[in-house]
Design goal:
450 residues, alpha/beta
Length: 450
Amino acid sequence: MHIVERTLSLPVAPANRGLLAHLGRALEFRLGGDAVPIRFVITRSDPEHYECEVGLIERAEKVAWGGGGLFEFRKRASEATDRFVVVLIVPTGVGAEIGGHAGDAGPVARMLAEACDVLITHPNVVNASDINELPGNALYVEGSILTRLLMGVVGLQPVRSNRVISILHAHESEALVNAAVNAVNAARASYGLNCPKIVLVDRGFVMRSEYNVSGRASGEILQFRDLYNILTAERGKFDAVAISSVISVPPAFHQQYFDKAGEMVNPWGGVEALLTHSVSSLFNVPSAHSPMFESEQIANSDPGIVDPRMAAEAISLTFLQCVLKGLQRSPRLITAEDAIQGPGVLSARDVSCLVLPDRCVGLPTLAALEQGIPVIAVRDNQNLLRNDLTLLPWSPGQFHPVENYFEAAGVLAAIRAGVDPSALRRPLRPVQIDSGATTPVAKTHALLRR
């Protein structure tokens, strides 16, 4: 089994309507039989084409798939209003100015958590090597699971704790393996992590980082079946999967990443997302990955005083602690259609708003569009993607472009209070009067407007 990303150009849907169904059909036609899509993004759109990058499990025969497919969608019948639930996304590997480094969107998560009852976010937002300051009212959800939540095909059941199996690279450096094992045991001793087993995976399982033509961080994963077989053999003995393994990058990348102070897209995150999307989609469990240093020499090198957004990476040896802490209470997936609407389960019906960087069009954006979920797009979180979200067929009042996350928090507060955000801006435009009606009052207004 081989995991990789492919670039495709797909035709534009008329007026950008029915995009989920349109893209699903186009992708099925282009891919053929044995490639299973697990990740999808539109990197650039123009009047004729969507330039897409699709994560695939190739040679996926005889694999027990955990769901109905990447584009499976169930429209919610209504919105629940007993809680105000916000989904916060910063896509991995797109060079986001805020959240594209080492958990540097954590302060955003903490601020927005104060504006809602429940915040649902993903590892890229809060994972900062040895640091994970997830707000108390937040849920830590792997990216593909978050997508499926918005697509209406899974529910989230909060848990007290998970059994977190730890899969560690059988590194040739005993010191690096020992450090990872010590990280797991530190979690057990300091905050009571339940880790039923540590499993070493040999060097047949390889992760390689690459950049796509768009500039997005991506990569490929070789011999994924080695990991798949381990998890299949242990199925039923764990609730979540923590993985720490080497990601191969050119040796110079480590120092270049720090030296370029945010100009270089983090090369590790893209291939990590491919891995966790695959694991969570196939096994219906939360998962997260932390990179392991390629050598002791790299681990012991001094990057100097680095950009604050990268400082968490500069002080960590294993990068594993944030993963373990996040997975300890990551919610359980509920996939049975009748159970998704059960008591205590969060579903698409409960989602009140989606917050994401402007120009990002992936399945979460398209799912929110079709579910009627309000979307807040933050302009100053610059990134590599080149899409105009205003061209999507939003319902009136569904789409809210804002300049920054401070303004996003204000829009959330307005929506939560039942206040139309446009009422807080000036000029306040008058309500349109339709002169096509035939009542005497309407006719009078029509005459006055001539």
